[in-house]
Structure prediction request, 244 residues.
Amino acid sequence: MRWGRWGGPRRLTGFLHPCLLLLLHRGDAHGYNLLQGLEEFGFDASSLNPGLVYRALHEMEREGYVVSEWEEESLGPPRRVYRLTPRGDEVLSQWVEELRESRRALDRLIEAHKTHLEEHLP
Amino acid sequence: MRWGRWGGPRRLTGFLHPCLLLLLHRGDAHGYNLLQGLEEFGFDASSLNPGLVYRALHEMEREGYVVSEWEEESLGPPRRVYRLTPRGDEVLSQWVEELRESRRALDRLIEAHKTHLEEHLP
DNA sequence: GCACACTATATACAAATTGTCAATAGTTGA
DNA sequence: TCAACTATTGACAATTTGTATATAGTGTGC
Prediction:
């Protein structure tokens, strides 16, 4: 087991998916576009593998959370433009509720650690 | 792909490990004991598989974050009692810093979603 | 006209993480 | 003695994430 196995940033499982849906709520977009928008949520667009974004979009299209079509008259390489569906809007709300619960757990740990530090200083 | 694949609670990767270290900071404990203490951080002790806790403890012992020994004079089945090491205390602080960063990302998403809801109500 | 950088999408494969299942064992109480 | 609870462990499967690479169009500089 190499060092740093639990040393990296502690991300939420499936955090990418709700971020993408939220970005799509603001307007239709294609993958490369979304890749850049993700910086708002702490992702580093230059180091984030684009494949992850495209894969997430494909998965959510299979679930009916988004729909896509090839853009007509696009400059440059063909782009697949995604749009949020009503179903996608629904699951986004559900996911945000779950994220609130995760935040509560997170807060409990952070608070408990703060208390632990205070008890060990004079 | 079955439904609900991203339907479950959005947990943090490796969230179990810092929770265990924090509980151990309060005092030495054995696995079964820690299992119950985890409820404080949103885990459901009755549905959480004990194997996950024991595995996490073994991993952290290999890394030198905790040490353990079989308890002498224990009532009931033999218990392996864990103690936090100074190294373990150090990594706990690092992890909590990372969790603060995750919290910020979480806040941005939750806030953005709140804004999105407000813009769609009259 | 060609190498190169940038935009854009896609897929196969590997690694890491988490979850499930079952085995073992001692104690207590009915 | 049977069941319930405490207690630990390991094998195996599923899920999730990360890496690597392939394809392709456009514009810029030389």
About this structure: Chain B has one domain: 16-118. The radius of gyration of chain B is 18 Å. The helical segments of chain B are 16-25, 31-37, 50-62, 86-118.
